[in-house]
């Protein structure tokens, strides 16, 4: 068990305002997953003298696959019910171990969630997952939420993600900075930022290999694309693109079927998806994919959804995706899947409710979507496979799905 320390990190402004809401939170962190426990924490929990918690811990604490000293030496099992609660969760929605023994007794993942810390080039960066309702609220409610600054934040050494060796390459850091800059550019619709990154990733991918990158070529490509963005030539081409709605519906339907093969245990998320689907199926006067496509295209506030999703995508890219430059195109496609899925369901909820969504309604769908992705870590990858099986094998195919305007 590592100790929590206050360390200097590069962090977005929203983390300065974040604190756990505890019992006031509309949800809790303590369901849907089996929490990994390192060797030292396992031993301490086994030896906990508290008479009230001892039998609960003895029942919940299981031996894992890891050896002595490993991070997966044990785990706290979840209950085998619809929600899969941790057995240490109280009826007030709080952790009984935290209440009685303090934060330092918690397993690393329980102590640090929703924070995500990694080391890049000797500098610590910390973001947080919008799977936490309060992080999602802070992320979406403040125009300056993603302003990066030096900040003192709680960190556990064992939970610092180590940058991949390729981040020592100058070219990798340049690509990461360029991609995040494009995602942060508010003058671009989010869909156009994604389109730029898809096209650019396709060009850059061959320049990276196992033992390095052609740094001169990478620098030249980035300089050329920066020029095209600044002079407007690339954006003019992208601005002429229109969405192919029948393909859009077909591909998203294929991805939606992934849920049928997974053990989803979040009834509220499924309720929202069902409501959104009904909003897209009903009222268009036309059945099947064509009717859904027409209802989606009729959503009035699609531009505001695009603006909201830019922040969500930047946060996810900075915290969890780049800089895997040897899989650059795949990471951009994952972001596209997030964007397309959230945009589709938010538009469906607007149609179902007959109005623009309130901020709290947007926050609810977004935090539940990312919660599902934590509980089902292969979900997005499987959605990506479904996209490929539906024919999304080339970048130009993806460009038929992203635009805000239909053909």
Kindly describe this structure:
This protein is mainly α and 407 residues long. It folds into 2 domains: 4-161, no CATH class; 164-407, no CATH class. The protein is 51% helix and 11% strand. It has helices at residues 14-17, 39-46, 54-60, 96-101, 108-112, 133-141, 170-184, 190-204, 215-231, 233-239, 245-256, 267-281, 288-297, 302-320, 328-353, 359-375, 379-389, 395-398; strands spanning 4-12, 35-37, 61-63, 74-76, 115-120, 123-128, 148-156, 160-162, 208-209, 212-213. The chain has a 3-stranded antiparallel beta sheet. A hairpin with a 2-residue loop joins strand 9 and strand 10. Helix 7 (170-184) runs parallel beside helix 9 (215-231) and helix 11 (245-256) crosses helix 17 (379-389). The longest helix is centred in the last third of the chain and has 26 residues, at 328-353. It is globular. The mean pLDDT is 89. This is Flagellin lysine-N-methylase. Its EC number is 2.1.1.-. Keywords: Cell projection, Cilium, Flagellum, Methyltransferase, Transferase. One of its GO terms (molecular function) is methyltransferase activity.
Provide the descriptors you would attach to this structure in a database record.
407 residues; mainly alpha; 2 domains; 3-stranded antiparallel β-sheet; 51% helix; flagellum; Flagellin lysine-N-methylase; transferase; methyltransferase activity
Break the fold down into its secondary structure elements and pairings.
Layout: E1 4-12, H1 14-17, E2 35-37, H2 39-46, H3 54-60, E3 61-63, E4 74-76, H4 96-101, H5 108-112, E5 115-120, E6 123-128, H6 133-141, E7 148-156, E8 160-162, H7 170-184, H8 190-204, E9 208-209, E10 212-213, H9 215-231, H10 233-239, H11 245-256, H12 267-281, H13 288-297, H14 302-320, H15 328-353, H16 359-375, H17 379-389, H18 395-398
Parallel strand pairs: 5-8
Antiparallel strand pairs: 1-7, 2-4, 3-4, 5-6, 9-10
Helix pairs in contact: 6-16, 7-9, 8-15, 11-13, 11-17, 12-13, 12-15, 14-15, 15-17
């Amino acid at each position: 068990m590592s100790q929590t320390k206050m360390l200097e990190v590069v962090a977005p402004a929203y983390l300065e305002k974040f604190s756990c809401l505890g019992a006031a939170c509309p949800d809790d962190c303590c369901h849907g997953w089996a929490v990994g426990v390192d060797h030292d924490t396992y031993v301490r929990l086994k030896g906990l003298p508290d008479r009230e918690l001892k039998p609960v811990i003895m029942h919940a604490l299981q031996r894992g696959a890891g050896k002595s000293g490993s991070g997966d030496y044990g785990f706290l099992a979840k209950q085998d019910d619809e929600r899969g609660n941790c057995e240490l969760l109280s009826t007030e929605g709080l952790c009984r171990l935290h209440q009685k023994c303090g934060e330092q007794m918690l397993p690393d993942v329980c102590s640090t969630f929703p924070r995500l810390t990694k080391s890049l080039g000797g500098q610590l960066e910390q973001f947080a997952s919008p799977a936490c309702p309060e992080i999602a609220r802070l992320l979406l409610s403040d125009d300056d939420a993603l302003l990066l600054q030096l900040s003192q934040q709680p960190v556990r050494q064992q939970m610092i993600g180590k940058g991949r060796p390729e981040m020592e390459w100058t070219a990798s850091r340049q690509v990461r900075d360029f991609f995040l800059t494009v995602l942060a550019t508010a003058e671009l619709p989010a869909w156009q930022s994604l389109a730029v990154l898809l096209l650019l990733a396709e060009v850059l991918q061959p320049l990276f290999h196992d033992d390095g990158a052609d740094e001169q070529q990478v620098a030249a490509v980035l300089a050329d694309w920066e020029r095209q963005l600044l002079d407007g030539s690339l954006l003019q081409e992208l601005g002429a693109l229109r969405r192919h709605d029948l393909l859009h519906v077909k591909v998203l339907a294929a991805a939606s079927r992934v849920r049928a093969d997974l053990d989803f245990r979040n009834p509220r998320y499924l309720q929202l998806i069902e409501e959104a689907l009904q909003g897209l199926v009903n009222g268009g006067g036309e059945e099947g994919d064509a009717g859904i496509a027409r209802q989606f295209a009729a959503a009035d506030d699609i531009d505001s959804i695009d603006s909201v999703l830019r922040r969500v995508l930047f946060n996810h890219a900075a915290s969890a995706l780049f800089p895997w430059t040897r899989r650059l195109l795949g990471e951009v496609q994952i972001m596209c899947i997030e964007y397309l899925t959230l945009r589709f369901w938010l538009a469906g909820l607007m149609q179902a409710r007959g109005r623009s969504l309130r901020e709290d309604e947007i926050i609810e769908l977004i935090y539940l979507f990312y919660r599902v992705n934590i509980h089902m870590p292969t979900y997005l990858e499987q959605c990506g496979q479904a996209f490929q099986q539906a024919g999304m094998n080339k970048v130009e195919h993806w460009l038929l799905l992203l635009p805000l305007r239909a053909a």
